[in-house]
Amino acid sequence: MKRTDPLFPPSKVDLALGNRTLRSYALQLARIEAALSRMETGQYGRCTQCSAPIPIRQLEADPALSACSNCEEPSDQLV
Hints:
This protein has two helices and no strands. The protein has helices at 12-41, 56-61. It is an all-alpha fold.
């Protein structure tokens, strides 16, 4: 049974999972918008920290990637 019935409001767990999903989508959207901005300025495919080229295979796996493997931080990974 779907929990849209007013007699069965979403639980705290449901709300927490929904909030986590929304945050994840918001972070992914921000990464995509940043990649589009880099495309507009001609910086797409270059590391935002050291300006080294990011290998095409890595960009194919994650087109929103902003850092090379040497500069990559855990927060740069897919969410």
